Amino acid sequence: MSALLPMQKTVLRVLAWIERYRYLKFGIVGASGTVVNLVVLYLGHEYLFAAIEATYKKPYLSLALAITLATINNFTWNRLWTWSDRVRTLEAQEAQPVSLRLLGMEFGQYVTASAFGSALQYVLTLLLSGSMDYRIANVIAILAASVSNFLANDRWTFRRNRP
User: Fold this and answer.
1) Residue 113 located in a structural domain
2) Gap between the Cα atoms of 36 and 147, Å rounded
């Protein structure tokens, strides 16, 4: 087997370092959700709902769709990566690789735990979009909601010990 190149070693060290810090993983997943959110928001506002939203000049429907798809994206990646150690422990307790009951319960808790952040993001985006570009307003709102989302999901959805 060939020796790793210096760049490959650096990338592996960075990945190993990130792996130790759950909030960084949460942030990377959140960044992917932000991309999903912004792409869906733009496509929805400019094309999919353009005839409806042009009347209001605010991205109501596209924002709701963007938040929904970003939430599904984030739940999936947070479950598979950010809190994978806790998910494996819970699945071992269930004696099944993927229990639909557990998955449904986790998704319900994730959505509930993220609801405050989503509501905060929605309201802040609409308020700020009156004085700045809606995409910039959305990024600011996402950043404001990220801390509460992490804490709620870390302490409730993916907590270490379930009763």
Assistant:
1) yes
2) 19
